[in-house]
User: Fold this.
Amino acid sequence: MISKRIVLHFPRRLVGEPVVSNLVKRFDLDFNILKASVTPNEEGLMVLSISGDESACDAGLAYLTDAGLTVEPLSEDVVRNESRCTQCGACTSVCSTGALAVDRATMEVRFTSDKCIACQYCVKACPMKAMEVRF
Amino acid sequence: MSKTIREINDRIASGKAVVVTAEEIISIVEKKGVEAAAREVDVVTTGTFGPMCSSGAYINVGHTKPRIKLGGGTVLINDVPAYAGLAAVDLYLGATAIPDDDPRNKRSPGDFGYGGGHVIEELVAGKDVRLTATAYGTDCYPRKKLETLLNIKDLNEAVLFNPRNAYQNYNVAVNPSGKTIYTYLGVLKANLGNANYCSAGQLSPLLNDPLYKTIGIGTRIFLGGGEGYVVWQGTQHNPGVPRSENGVPKAPAATLAVLGDLKKMNATWLKGASFQGYGVTLNVGIGIPIPILSEEIVRYTAVRDDEIFAPIVDYSKAYPEREPGSLGSVSYAQLKSGHITISGKEVPTAPLSSYPKAREIAGILKSWIQEGKFFLTEPVAGLPGADSGYAFKPLVERAIA
Assistant:
């Protein structure tokens, strides 16, 4: 069982195709849409987290490429510098995917990098400059 | 039942003092009752760790050979301006100072990546900082230029002296307008997109002694990882605001001016902070011990988040225009749940004050007292109280003739 975060670029002709649901039907992959935008007359963009058997992931990605999509790994990573983070929680108000969230029992701030789409809003909003971008 | 601070200090000296945090006292009072809790517990420790802009440090850098009079001159530390309107080599470095060449909000929102708060953090961490200065030269202080590295260990004095810290309660900031705004309470998204708050609630020092029955001028405290003292009421001290039946103010009220030896502090508890579109500040860690002198005092320290209420303030219009009124009131229990409801809309909340760090500070202070390393002080004077008439006034502008 592995998990990958990928960026899909849809050409205009494929915007109407159910390619993502085919990942589930044909390859038994789980997916989580982290970010999606499709504008009329332009291409679509989707950031996706997929998980499943390694061989199924490879086959699913090959299917997407064959279907005419451009598939790229999410190349930027946002990481937390633990020595600067003070566990305040300011970042959680700008994080749209819940990658940064407060554990209500302890009030500690959890960073789940699998959910991060590298939008980098937290990088600016963190008063301690604890969130850093790695390429 | 009543105890004195001297009796409590004797118990600390003999290692017998019972010390608990302001979180722990809640369940003790719930289980055993006020009377037993007051008898058994000697000290309740509090804590808070958040951005506190009215902070800074004064330093004495020692005399050069030949001498220079920095007083009246221009002084930069790591390019951040320091206040030199004092004697020859005394300086005050304020938390919010920023380099002259910082672009500020020229392209809004500015980053404010480095300033006085960061210089203080680096000094405390033992890093060398760069001092560059120009002076006008006198017969007794002939030198006009100075460029040197400084290290905190070589300074004669380095004293953290914060005119306003540890606010007793604070506003919850929201933005009902149509565009994102950048404030000292963080990024506020349009159309009530989020609500930010800044208090340790049930762990916060002054919320555990709402009527200043034990905290006063001369109270020894945890400050920035070292020891400090309450030296005065803080600026904008405003004890006369409306209060709940438990004595807890329903709006920002008391503040403290605090002071302590910067050389004995720790950069874990003094951290420079950058607020996008707003500026630079310093996150300060403060913990105050509350001696349990009576049942009344233990009742105050058992206050819970659901009994402390904060006003919701519109930072897009009401705050900048200094218009009175709020959009309602919420408890810290609601704020800490992650969502509050404003005019029927569910709004996610986020803290700016670190609750985990506040808890850690209360725990450190507890262990200092348990180990006999920290003793309580009797205040030499009280803070202006709820009925004192002491109030926070606005500036009434008058035309210059």
